[in-house]
Design goal:
This protein is of the alpha+beta class and 208 residues long. It contains six helices and four strands. It has a four-stranded mixed beta sheet with strand order 1-4-2-3. Helix 3 packs across helix 4 (115-127). The longest helix is centred in the N-terminal third of the chain and has 38 residues, at 29-66.
Length: 208
């Protein structure tokens, strides 16, 4: 027995639906065909949208391949854009404050997810070779004052070392640990404490 094609299935479906509703013994073909035509048109529109989306995706892939805009180059473009924003912020405020450099718990080891912002900072410093920065680590108020000061210095120093590894000369970078002595927010809530755990890049010299 042959399988019903799509239109046959639609005709039977709409006729049975109409028959059950109106208690018809013979089909109202005008109504049934009207329903079927609407359904077929809707299918065609969906297919056209899928084709258009596929063409668009292929075009993007082709553009990326032909112009060498591959994932690694997309990262470079993002870093270049953030480099400009970092420099503008530094010139406007005299410092860059970030809570996006994260460390392993209770130590100075930088998490890999924090490396893009450090790379952006290195890019900004390379682009503006007269800029010198004081890298200042801050903590919340948990723990003793001396320990927090030492931890904040170790973290600031680790950021400095990463920038040096990325090609920034050591004489342009100073590491400071300020511990809990300069809170940006009250240490009375988890959110406030999280915001106090930060690194600031303070402008020391700019001769451009």
């Amino acid at each position: 027995m042959e399988k019903d094609n799509s239109i046959d299935k639609d005709l039977k479906h709409h006729f049975l639906k109409q028959k059950a509703k109106d208690q018809l013994t013979t089909p109202d073909f005008q109504t049934v065909f009207g329903h079927v035509q609407q359904k077929q048109k809707a299918k065609k529109r969906r297919n056209l949208r899928l084709i258009a989306a596929s063409v668009a995706i292929l075009a993007v892939i082709s553009f990326a391949v032909n112009d060498d805009i591959l994932p690694q180059n997309m990262d470079k473009i993002a870093i270049a854009k953030s480099t400009t924003l970092l420099y503008e912020s530094l010139m406007a405020d005299g410092k860059i404050v970030t809570n996006d450099i994260h460390f392993e718990y209770d130590v100075a080891k930088i998490k890999p997810t924090s490396l893009p912002i450090i790379e952006s900072l290195a890019g900004m410093l390379k682009k503006h070779p007269t800029v010198k920065l004081s890298i200042e680590g801050h903590t919340d108020s948990s723990g003793c004052i001396l320990y927090n000061q030492q931890l904040s210095y170790a973290r600031a120093y680790e950021v400095r070392q990463n920038l040096i590894r990325l090609g920034i000369t050591a004489d342009r970078l100073l590491a400071k640990g300020l511990g809990e002595s300069h809170p940006a927010h009250p240490n009375t809530t988890e959110k406030g404490m999280a915001l106090n755990r930060r690194v600031e890049f303070v402008l020391m010299e700019q001769n451009d």
